[in-house]
Amino acid sequence: MKIKILTDCHHRISSALSQSFSANSVVDVPKKTAEALIERKVAETTTETVTQKKEA
User: Fold this and answer.
1) Fewest CB within a 10 Å sphere: which of 5, 7, 49, 51?
2) Is 51 helix (H, G, I), strand (E, B) or coil?
């Protein structure tokens, strides 16, 4: 799912794994990760071109 990151943030995937995101970047992440970041109001859905692809 493509989202635009609104502010520098991170998302914990597991107790040992975390992802960092830079403000104003457009990333392609799994739907579950996207929904969590959107719920926290640090990201929004977008149709812009992806600048980073995150796997987990």
Assistant:
1) 49
2) coil
Q: What is the pLDDT of residues 3-40, one digit of tens each?
A: 999 999 999 988 999 999 999 999 999 999 999 999 99
Sketch the domain layout of the chain as residue ranges. Answer: 2-53
Cβ atoms 12, 51 nearer than 8 A: no
Per-residue model confidence as pLDDT tens digits over 30-54: 999 999 999 999 999 999 888 776 6
- Cα distances (angstroms) measured from residue 4 to each of 1, 14, 16, 46: 10, 22, 25, 6
